[in-house]
Amino acid sequence: MVCAHSRVLLPWRHQQRPFSNNKILVEMDESTGVAVMKIKNPPVNSLRLELLTEFAISLEKLEIDRGCRGLILTSASPKIFSAGLDITEMCGKSTEHYEAFWRAVQEMWLKLFGSNMVTIAAVNGSSPAGGCLMSMCCDYRIMADNPKYAIGLNETQLGIVAPFWFKDTMMHIVGSRVTEQSLQLGQMYPAPAALKIGLVDQLVPEDKVQSTAAAVMAQWLSVPDHARQITKSMIRKPIIDRLVKQREADINNFVSFISKESIQKSLQVYMDRLKQKK
Amino acid sequence: MVCAHSRVLLPWRHQQRPFSNNKILVEMDESTGVAVMKIKNPPVNSLRLELLTEFAISLEKLEIDRGCRGLILTSASPKIFSAGLDITEMCGKSTEHYEAFWRAVQEMWLKLFGSNMVTIAAVNGSSPAGGCLMSMCCDYRIMADNPKYAIGLNETQLGIVAPFWFKDTMMHIVGSRVTEQSLQLGQMYPAPAALKIGLVDQLVPEDKVQSTAAAVMAQWLSVPDHARQITKSMIRKPIIDRLVKQREADINNFVSFISKESIQKSLQVYMDRLKQKK
Amino acid sequence: MVCAHSRVLLPWRHQQRPFSNNKILVEMDESTGVAVMKIKNPPVNSLRLELLTEFAISLEKLEIDRGCRGLILTSASPKIFSAGLDITEMCGKSTEHYEAFWRAVQEMWLKLFGSNMVTIAAVNGSSPAGGCLMSMCCDYRIMADNPKYAIGLNETQLGIVAPFWFKDTMMHIVGSRVTEQSLQLGQMYPAPAALKIGLVDQLVPEDKVQSTAAAVMAQWLSVPDHARQITKSMIRKPIIDRLVKQREADINNFVSFISKESIQKSLQVYMDRLKQKK
């Protein structure tokens, strides 16, 4: 996708950024105006506070770069797009930490769902919870055609709850009935099922995910930017405004929920189970 | 479904309940935490004021019973789930009666649509109008795979109108386009068509409706209650609040509509036609 | 469709109407209560200010005619239903003209989307932009089964933007996900694709479009008018009210957008391209 005469543009990589661990790799193709952003946080691309902060700053930089019109979001690790929010960030930490973490999750959503760029998720592996949210924020989702990969908001399975803006994002894509059942059950959809309900737009063989994303992107970029952007904003702004208006209440809600002893216990049980699996 | 070591728990059956005609049969399986509620009002399970009141009270008792986590709603009469609101309750009665009746219909909806339990409709027969509403209030709908059974909100066919909260309930499940066409035409969907538009979730042979409901229930109950309940409420509360906020206006609206001479006439015509059929 | 004993009723044709160029042909069948309205503005049924005004007045007359219960909207020119808003009305004109034009587009939408009649679009040809809007306003859409005919809101392809009420109308029919993608891309759907996403309800051979419209109309007219009308209004009024409340702001928005030099330029480019094609 990055053709011969393009060059990798990462000027801000050279600035001192204490938050950065280079978990967000950005390749910008000047000839097409398309950036490819790869999440690189092995083994499962968990969304930690640091990573989310780096993500938001990287995205912001692309957003203000007039030469960048499209973003392909994908994973640097095959088989997993992102395992979602890192549970260790929500377990046994301080109230302040929970607050900072949740604000960063909100920021990721606000920036990605509200992006002026064309955003395409190249879902090259499983994508539960926060990983599903990220891909749902994009304008288009291409998933590797492998029934072993699944996508969905499975929060209730962990005893936690997807907040209203996760719900709004899913409802925007698959409607209220499928969203309600998905969220109540914490349902994960194998790729073919995800296509069937419209949670992803297209399945392609694993080795074609990136090239298909580039081809679809070219089609989207053939539309005049300003008209496309106004259109996108007209549709998404009401959804975004709902969180903007109650952002602090949503943080308080999360912090008080996650701080409950019962919730902490059930997250601990879940983490212990994960460790035993390893 | 009610296994050997379970016992039928109906403590309130022994209390004096002047409203009760035992038209709502409840079997509670303590081992699974699942109650089966059967509507028994032969020949067609018409929803009379008495029955609706008994239904609301029975549901309320299950709701506050911490041992009860799931409800399967079905009919005691094969071939008919419920024929819907009893037209005789809306014909030739006093204003006070219409008011009490409509309040009971609202109450049924508020309690069932807003239930904290997992609710599954085992639709073992036809289910027009109010019967369709009841099944739409549940979290999941299993219907007998028989094209002779039909389901839908057919109010306009009778010259009456499904109120906004019937409409909201249907829109929640099948979206606005299908809802608009269904409601304008008063369309009844034979089971296969109902599945196709998503009005029911699953068709199974008639003799498998109850066992399938039990199996699906077990799956839903594998999700932690508190997370599932918060999720359900997050999605349904805005819909419920709309009626709560204008409940009295909705009653007045119904009473003044149903009291119109022209409406009374067309209901009378409809009833006369039904009688001739018999 | 117009049967032997019907007569064409166009009393207002004999009045002096300075706005009228007879671009809207109306045939009323008294025996069925169904009017057929044909748009006749060769070569492509562009929606000019004059035509829109004539349309609104004709519709208003049918609306107040108690004998008229249903409207079939179609094109007098085979192959094209309507090419949509006439771009020459938005290019190189005065602010006052843009304002009058946009008010007429709004009026068309308000009257057609809000009609008390059963409205069926007999889409006998391609139907981009404003043409798509007109057909989406109807209760039911029958399209000629010809993959050369396409329908959709393709505004962004021209560098302009479908306003929120175009978007609301489409969302009402195909949901938010399909609407967002369609509007961002300015996507035109060939007839089979339009059927698949639900943008039209039925495809029939080209020579059966009118007769099918008549048959479907008969089915819709079998429902008591008053119940159907209240139902339709209950669903559409909230959508209509959104424009009514901000009608002037919407006009100002359009006028200031369309007056921009950059927009004028891109419309000019588009028109030049169209001329070269001829």
UniProtKB/TrEMBL annotation, chains A, B, C:
Keywords: Acetylation, Fatty acid metabolism, Isomerase, Lipid metabolism, Mitochondrion, Transit peptide. One of its GO terms (cellular component) is mitochondrial matrix. Its EC number is 5.3.3.8. Its main location: mitochondrion. Pathway: Lipid metabolism; fatty acid beta-oxidation. Signal peptide: none annotated. It comes from the Eukaryota. The keyword Isomerase applies. It is found in: Mitochondrion matrix. Belongs to the enoyl-CoA hydratase/isomerase family. CDD domains: crotonase-like. It catalyses: (3Z)-hexenoyl-CoA = (2E)-hexenoyl-CoA; (2E)-tetradecenoyl-CoA = (3Z)-tetradecenoyl-CoA; a (3E)-enoyl-CoA = a 4-saturated (2E)-enoyl-CoA; (3Z)-dodecenoyl-CoA = (2E)-dodecenoyl-CoA. The keyword Acetylation applies. SUPFAM superfamilies: ClpP/crotonase. GO terms for molecular function: delta(3)-delta(2)-enoyl-CoA isomerase activity. It is an enzyme of class 5 (isomerase). Homotrimer. Coiled coil: none annotated. Pfam families: ECH_1. This is Enoyl-CoA delta isomerase 1, mitochondrial. Key enzyme of fatty acid beta-oxidation. Able to isomerize both 3-cis (3Z) and 3-trans (3E) double bonds into the 2-trans (2E) form in a range of enoyl-CoA species, with a preference for (3Z)-enoyl-CoAs over (3E)-enoyl-CoAs. The catalytic efficiency of this enzyme is not affected by the fatty acyl chain length. InterPro entries: ClpP/crotonase-like_dom_sf, Enoyl-CoA_hyd/isom_CS, Enoyl-CoA_hydra/iso. GO terms for biological process: fatty acid beta-oxidation.
